[in-house]
Amino acid sequence: MSDIFKKLNVLIRASLNDLTSLEQGDGETPPFRLGKNIDRDIAALHDRLRDAETYELQLKTRVQALNGEIATLDLQADEAVTQGRNESARHAVEQMKRAQQRLTMTQGDLREHQLVTQELAQRVRELEYVVEEARKNTPPQQTSSASPLQALNDALQNLRKKGSDVAASSRLEEETPPPTAEVEEDLERRRQRLSK
Question: Using an 8 Å Cβ cutoff, are 31 and 137 in contact?
């Protein structure tokens, strides 16, 4: 999901650069003209920001669930060690290590998503400001559908169509089993701690 927000940021950043260079004018460029769909596109960007907030809540919920799973598996491993059930303890530790890997990946995704979302929100605010300034400085007869924002309009339409595909094909988590030595070390530390 973060990939779509990164793409939007790049598009908006490029469009803002085009807009500001046209707005400042160098005497050789034609006057800036707003695209007829710019308001709809800005509204679509706000929808994306709301989607980003929803996704962030999902990631936070997942982090909490993984923390709970890790705590439960930790207790199960301790109980199994205390009762001398080494195979059950080993299994619980392996599961706990896998959950810790998923937690680390999810926390990384959350941090990256928050940064990308913050940048997207900033770019949307900048775009709104530039569009508002352009409207103030553009006579009504100069507004047309042929604009420097046409690439942004087209890209946003494509992103709307592909948005669900990108979200559905977000990266799959790869779980690697924890090394046997790591599991055995964890079990030995538990045995020593619990035997006291």
Answer: no
Q: What amino acid occupies position 33?
A: R
Is it the case that residue 173 has pLDDT exceeding 50? no
Q: Highest mean pLDDT: which of 64-68, 151-155, 158-162?
A: 64-68
Query: Within 13 Å and on the Cβ side, how many CA atoms surround 102?
Result: 21
- Please give the Cα distance from 13 to 132 (Å, whole number): 17
Please provide the DSSP assignment of 67-130 as one string: HHHHHHHHHHHHHHHHTT-HHHHHHHHHHHHHHHHHHHHHHHHHHHHHHHHHHHHHHHHHHHHH
Residue 138: how many CB atoms within 10 A of its CB? 15
- Residue type, position 147, single letter: S
Q: What is the DSSP letter of 171?
A: P
User: Measured at the alpha carbon of residue 39, what is the angle toward residues 34 and 44, in degrees to the nearest 5?
Assistant: 130
**Alpha-carbon gap, residue 33 to 14, rounded angstroms:** 16
For the chain, domain boundaries: 2-168
CA 170, CA 178: separation in Å to the nearest integer? 24
Q: What is the pTM of this model?
A: 0.62
DSSP state of 27: S
Tell me how many helices (H) and strands (E) the chain has: 5, 0
